[in-house]
Every structure is written in C-alpha cells, then in structure tokens.
Amino acid sequence: MFYILGFVVFLIITIFADIIFGGLATVYFTIPAMLLILLSLVAVMTATRSFKVFGRGLKAVILPKKPLSEETRGQAAALFRLLSKTTALAAAIGVLISVVIMLMGSDWSDLDARLKLGGNIAISLIFPLYALFMIAAIFEPVVFNLKKRRDTVR
Predict the structure, then answer these.
(1) CA-CA distance, 87 to 95, in Å (whole number)?
(2) CA-to-CA distance for 119 and 121, rounded, in angstroms?
(3) Which of 42, 44, 63, 66 is the most buried (most CB within 10 A)?
(4) Which residues contact 34 (CB under 8 A, 6 or more apart)?
(5) Prediction pTM value
(6) Distance of alpha carbon 73 from alpha carbon 138, whole angstroms
(7) Alpha-carbon distance values, 109 to 80, 99, 100, 112, 124 (Å)
(8) Are 91 and 127 in contact (CB under 8 A)?
(9) From first to last of its 154 residues, what are the pLDDT tens digits of the chain?
(10) Which element (helix H / strand E) includes 98?
(11) Which residues fall within 8 angstroms of residue 124, CB to CB, at 6 or more apart?
C-alpha cells in the first residue's frame, strides 16, 4: 500500500515541478488517452466476464484480513496480469495512432507547424505515462500482494 502512495506522491511532485517551470497542467489530462486505455480495460473485462474477479482482487488487497480462496486468488492474479499487458498494448497503439495522425496532418512547408511538432509528440507520449502509472501503481502491486497471500478458504 505504501508503494502505491509513494508512486502517487512522486507523480504529483513531478507534475507540479513541470508546472512551476513553465509547463501546462492540461497537457497531463487528455480525454482521448484516458478513454483509449480505460475502454480497452473494460473491453477485456467484458470479454472475459471478470468484473466480479476484478472486484474480489481489489478487495483482497484493500482488506487483507478477509480470507480468499486459492482459486479466486489465482484468477484475480491472472486477471491483473492480463490487464497490465492490455494497458501496455493500448498505450503502444495510442502512441502509434496519435503519431500517424499528427504526421499525416502536418504541413511541412509551414515553419510554425514544424516548430509545434515537439509539443505534439509530447502529447502523444501521455499514453505510455497513463499506462505506466496504472501498471506500476495498480496492477502489479495487486498481483504481488495476491501472490504473497497464502490463506485458503474451504
């Protein structure tokens, strides 16, 4: 639990430092990036019909005193591993789509458009930022904690 809190504090400090040194806070919050990653996770959980397993896995980490069966623990760990992989794949797809759209819409004869290219590339890198945050702060700690538990319910 402290790992997640430490990671969130690090991310907040990084964003505030960027804002203090002249960055824009709105750059970190792009709706298309959030939607692509979250909708891909919902699609995977819908396809595998695992919303209940997702809830049980989160509950097992938040409330570690509650007993959890070995089968449920294994299913939840496998689901969160799958969600980690899905998040990474969605981020890669998001970067590729945004770079292709950006480069196709660029007017290379206009100097202003060429100067804005760096900012547009930076915005396309928000996809992996979201994915890394979700993987490192949510999915992998849940998998670690689920695999660490050894309680069984009959």
Answers:
(1) 12
(2) 5
(3) 44
(4) 130
(5) 0.75
(6) 16
(7) 47, 19, 18, 9, 22
(8) yes
(9) 566 677 678 777 877 777 777 766 666 777 888 888 889 999 999 999 999 999 888 888 888 777 778 888 889 999 999 999 999 999 999 889 888 888 777 776 777 766 777 777 877 888 888 888 888 888 888 888 888 876 555 4
(10) helix 70-104
(11) 94, 95, 98, 99, 102
Cβ pair 149, 73 in contact under 8 A: yes
Q: What does the chain come to in residues?
A: 154
Q: Let me know: does 19 contact 25? Beta carbons within 8 Å.
A: yes
CA distance 137 to 1: 9
Question: φ and ψ at 134, to 5 degrees?
Answer: -65, -40
What backbone phi and psi angles, to 5 degrees, belong to 52?
Answer: -65, -40
Q: What is the Cα–Cα distance from 71 to 25, expressed in whole angstroms? A: 43
Asked if residues 88 and 37 have their Cβ atoms less than 8 Å apart, the reply is no
The residue with tokens 């623990």 is 73
